[in-house]
Each structure stands twice: as structure tokens, then as C-alpha cells.
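Rotation project, supervised by the postdoc (A.L.). Task for the rotation student: set up a whole-complex structure prediction and record inputs and outputs verbatim in this book. Inputs entered:
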Amino acid sequence: MNGRLSTVWRALLLLFCGIVALWLVAPSLEQ
Amino acid sequence: MTVIDALSGPNTSRQAPDELPVGARRRRGGTVGLLLPAVVLVLGVFVVPLGIMLWRALSEPEPGLGNFAWYLTDPVQRDVLARTFTTGLIVTIVCLVIGYPYAYAMVAFGPKIRALLTMLVLVPFWTSLMVRTFSWVILLADNGPVHSVLKSIGLGNVHLIRTNLGVVIGMSQILLPFMVLPLYAVMAGIDRRLILASSSLGARPAVSFLRVWVPLTLPGVGAGCLMVFISSLGFYVTPALLGSPDNALISQQIYAQVSSLLQWGKGGAMGVVLLVLTFLVLAVLALALRRANRQGLRA
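Outputs recorded:
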């Protein structure tokens, strides 16, 4: 949070957001 | 010069001091005039229909509380009501579990990733609810993309369409922005130096997160949960398309009463009960939040 999130946490958070983003846009992509 | 002054023309600003009450009165008249369209709209499309619904619930087919007695004693309807609240609760929890880290990522990463994440969370708003739900029907169908992926990784035949799980997946996806956006708004306003201060006082990152960050985000959590839960109680399209008649929610039952069975009284009673229960949930949450705030002040 103070700009010192460890690399592992950053990578995990990004991966998580990627999966959520895919889930969010899935119905729009389906069209 | 206020907007009302500007709207009421040049006369207002040229009034002599002894005419001020007239000007003030005119200004108040202007305020009422500005409010009037909104008040008429709310009365016309909200209060009057609600009144008609209540009247029909109490008067059709015969005057009295028969419709309410029927609704509250019918075991099938009680099941549907319980299922509606359980589904709402599950959807709220799913949205919170997914939305909290997502909103956190929006404030934790740089502006480019934040812009991307914001855009992605807004994508669902760009397509209509109906179209998105039909897309979920295709995605979750047996032998659809999701089914095939689950089969190929060895999870066997997982049925998603016409199940409660399918309804929860669709509703959570549709309601997630309503969780993420209030959370992000609250998180963006938190002074990050508080985290620095707590770590300089010896708190480990996990402790700073749990004891400083999380409590500061609670207003956003409350607002998001309330929005998602209340919206999920009245969901119709998604459970109708992704669920089955066996696990219908209350909105489908109301639709069936009003549209197929033409029982306006029963449908009205169900609507009134749903409204009252929703208000009760709101009241309980408001009381809990007030108590939490008071305890927070005392601590």
C-alpha cells in the first residue's frame, strides 16, 4: 500500500485482477 | 449570484432593500418550482403505483388481510423468500470477496493499470443487462465454453445452467461494479501516510492492513454490500434465464402471480412484504453502522 507491496503480492494481485477482468468482460466478448 | 437568481432574471438583483422580502419569497417560489418536476415524477411513478399495489393487496379478491395471511403461511412461498435472501447474501459475499482485492489493486498500482482496471469494471455497463444475461446462457450452457473447460481439466460434467450456482455467477458478475466502485471511492480517499505511520510504529504489513486499512474502508464495504444486496433481492432477468423454475426467486413468483395467474392481490402482497423486509434490512444495517461508529469514537 505504501508502494512497498512485495513483488510476489503484486504478481498475485495482478493475476487475480486478470482473472476477474476476464470474468467481467466474458459476456461482452461472447457477443 | 446563485443559479436561482440567474434564472429569475435581471429584476431580482435590481430590487431595493425594502423589497427584499418579496425577492426572498420569489426566490423560495423558484426553489419550489425547481423541485416540482422531481416531486411530481416521484409521486407519479413511485408513490402512486406503490399505493395502488398496497390497495390491491388489501382489496382483491376480497377486502382484508387474506393475501398477506396466504403469503406468510404458504410453505412454498416461504421457501422462495428464504432462497431470495440466501441468494442475495451469497452474491453479496462473492462480490465482496472478489471486489475488495480488485478495488485494492486499483489504488495499489500505478495510473496506467488503474485506468485499465477501471475500464474493465465499467465494461459490463456498456452492454444491456438482457444481452449480458443471454451471453451467460451461452457461456454456461451444457457443452458451452465454461462446461468444456471444466470437463477438459477433469472436473467432470458440471451443470451450471439452470442451477443456483449459475444464477450466483451471473448475478455476481452483473453486480460486481456496484461493489467495486464505492470501495474504490473510499480507498482512494484514505490518507496513505496512516499506513506509513503504523509501520513506523512497529506494525507488520499484515497488522497495518488489518488494523488500519480495513477499518478505514468499512464505510465503503457497508455501502457496497447494501447496494449489491438490495439490488439482488429484486433481480428478475438473470434468475429467470439462468435459473430453473424449481429454484425461482421472489421476483419470478410475483411475475407469475400477476402475469400468468392474474392474482393482482397476491402479487401486490408479495411486493409489499419484499419492500417491508428490505426496509427492515436497511434499518438493521443502519443501526449496526451507527453503533460501530459510536464504538469507534469511544475507542
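Student's summary: Residues 20-59 of chain B form the longest helix (40 residues).
Supervisor addendum: Chain B touches chain A through 33 residues (CB under 8 Å).
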